[in-house]
Amino acid sequence: MIELTHEVIDYHRLTEDVRSSQAGAVVLFLGTVREMTADRQTLALDYDAFPAMAIAKMEELEAEARERWPVVNVRISHRLGHLELGEVSVAVAVSSPHRDVAFEAGRFLIDTLKVTVPVWKKENWSDGTTEWVHPGTGEVADSSPLERGSGGAIE
């Protein structure tokens, strides 16, 4: 299951969804909204995406993980919309026969997702300023790629 959602991510459900009698290991990664980025204080984040493009890319990542490792199940869920400090923005759950495979596949999935999937976040800073940032590349823009109609790339 791959999903983009405006709802709170149910990471307990994701974990249960990947559990299997064929898997001796389950790894769950949760990305959460942190308060400090370098020396700047974050009040909240807003996530935006091109859903069809983001889902297609996440499905490609799942397929690649299945080709590279003997994973049993994979679930990826990414939040969209407004998130407060401490809320879960992304979850990746992986099960496999052995823990080393689950850890490797899980790390590959989250690291690659952050760089390649067209999901953007708006940092809402404590000084009242905001900026749209691609989470993986760190590229900054004044507005969301959706607002600019740029297909997910910063111009």
Topology:
Layout: E1 2-5, H1 11-18, E2 25-32, E3 36-37, E4 40-49, H2 51-68, E5 73-79, E6 81-84, E7 88-96, H3 99-116, E8 119-125, E9 130-133, E10 140-141, H4 145-148
Parallel strand pairs: 1-5
Antiparallel strand pairs: 2-7, 3-4, 4-6, 4-8, 5-7, 8-9, 9-10
Helix pairs in contact: 2-3
User: Tell me, what's the shape?
Assistant: elongated
| CATH C-level of the domain at 2-35 and 50-119 | Alpha Beta
Cα radius of gyration in angstroms: 16 Å
**CATH fold topology of the domain at 2-35 and 50-119:** Aldehyde Oxidoreductase, domain 3
Number of helices: 4
Main sheet attributes: strand count, strand direction, barrel closure: 6 strands, antiparallel
Q: State the end-to-end distance.
A: 32 Å
CATH homologous superfamily assignment of the domain at 2-35 and 50-119: Molybdopterin biosynthesis MoaE subunit
Q: Strand share of the residues? A: 35-45%
Low-confidence stretches: none
Helix content: 25-40%
Which structural class best describes the helix and strand composition?
Answer: alpha+beta
Total strands:
10
Mean pLDDT, as a whole number? 92
Along the chain, the helix and strand elements come as EHEEEHEEEHEEEH
CATH architecture of the domain at 2-35 and 50-119: Alpha-Beta Complex
